[in-house]
Amino acid sequence: xxxxxxxxxxxxxxxxxxxxxxxxxxxxxxxxxxxxxxxxxxxxxxxxxxxxxxxxxxxxxxxxxxxxxxxxxxxxxxxxxxxxxxxxxxxxxxxxxxxxxxxxxxxxxxxxxxxxxxxxxxxxxxxxxxxxxxxxxxxxxxxxxxxxxxxxxxxxxxxxxxxxxxxxxxxxxxxxxxxxxxxxxxxxxxxxxxxxxxxxxxxxxxxxxxxxxxxxxxxxxxxxxxxxxxxxxxxxxxxxxxxxxxxxxxxxxxxxxxxxxxxxxxxxxxxxxxxxxxxxxxxxxxxxxxxxxxxxxxxxxxxxxxxxxxxxxxxxxxxxxxxxxxxxxxxxxxxxxxxxxxxxxxxxxxxxxxxxxxxxxxxxxxxxxxxxxxxxxxxxxxxxxxxxx
Length: 389
Hints:
Blueprint: H1 2-13, E1 20-29, E2 41-42, E3 44-58, E4 62-67, E5 76-79, H2 93-104, E6 112-119, H3 129-145, H4 151-165, H5 173-180, E7 185-190, E8 195-200, E9 206-212, H6 224-238, H7 252-258, H8 265-289, H9 293-309, H10 315-326, E10 331-337, E11 344-350, H11 354-369, E12 374-378, E13 385-386
Parallel strand pairs: 4-6
Antiparallel strand pairs: 1-3, 1-13, 2-7, 3-6, 4-5, 7-8, 9-11, 9-12, 10-11
Helix pairs in contact: 2-3, 2-4, 3-4, 3-5, 4-5, 6-8, 8-9, 10-11
């Protein structure tokens, strides 16, 4: 991969002299969905698929960005001092947003960059291709200009770029998981205070299988921001009777005692999901500590039901994939992952049943939806880094 991308870089920019090579993973969230902006816990892991980047400083005062995935756009060129959102720049707004956010935080970009990207995350799949590019850009800026920022700061700067430059009101999970990923571990992250611990994932006789629905979804134009607003309204009503800053502070029992103050039944369901999903995530990590993978799978299944019925972010494509998965032999658990409205499911499947799982689930999905899903047997990898080998 490195040689291919270096050769392509030389074709686009003339030479590879001074160029460095980077990798930034995608992520999948094993459980804890739509909790990250509600002050709850999440449990994501970095993947071994993601975004590769080649970058080097130039003396032209210009940022040049090229993506093999979006070759029709050619080289996107912007002055190194003028980072403004422009819809026609399409994917380039993600790296550009991170440059803008670094400047906002007082890190002055003193020269231009030549950059090339290639991603093997399915675009629009919900495996965080945008956050992968953002964190890659952050690490490139840190390495190139010697900025004194750690990986948590890079994740926060990347989130700022997504929120304020690209207009997507996302939580911290995606950028944090991609920046802080660790091979063979998931991250048990409390989004309220960014305290975290690494939990080893021991799947001795099973693997993680991601199914991409191939229904394209874009966070910015989905109902994501609407769900966030509904939770904020529910929280404000709960705060009239309980002293909390986030929905994630409530247990299921506490929520049941006070839920009546949420006057809108739809908003009550949204808040219920946020509270119960957070508690499911805590229980799921405890189950892993006890090596109880069967309980972990049951909690994954319950997570999907809540996302389907209370949060209403699944849709026919994701429901078809999950319900087909539940019918298959060797499936320990299955749920939608990501923001929803299309994207992917994540399943834990026993090794000797994976081929049959993919064949059977894929057939059920294509027969019902009319087009095929794509399946990926994935491994858990490290966070964004410069590749020195």
